[in-house]
Amino acid sequence: MALNDKLRDVFVEALGLDASVDVENLKYREIEEWDSVGHMALVAAIEDEFDVEFATDQVIDMSSFKVAVDMLEGFGVKA
Q1: Burial class of residue 15 in the structure, from the number of CB atoms within 10 Å of its CB (0-12 exposed, 13-18 middle, 19+ buried)
Q2: Which member of 24, 31, 37, 62 has the greatest number of CB atoms within 10 A?
Q3: Total-model pTM
Q4: Going residue by residue through the chain (79 aa), what tens digit of pLDDT does each one get?
């Protein structure tokens, strides 16, 4: 499974989104589900799924799906 597909599944699950939501264009706080509490749940789910640990500044900077992809690629995650 491609990185984007796997990460999309994590976003949907962690934020409790409908599968029809355009996850790849989501930005932090643009939807009710991605508030500060949802953000922490999302970060934890991404760390668990991809076996990575984000630094505090990365957690704060994770403002969109695209940023999350870029961060995971920075860790060398392929899929």
Answers
A1: buried
A2: 62
A3: 0.94
A4: 799 999 999 999 999 999 899 999 999 999 999 999 999 999 999 999 999 999 999 999 999 999 999 999 999 998 6
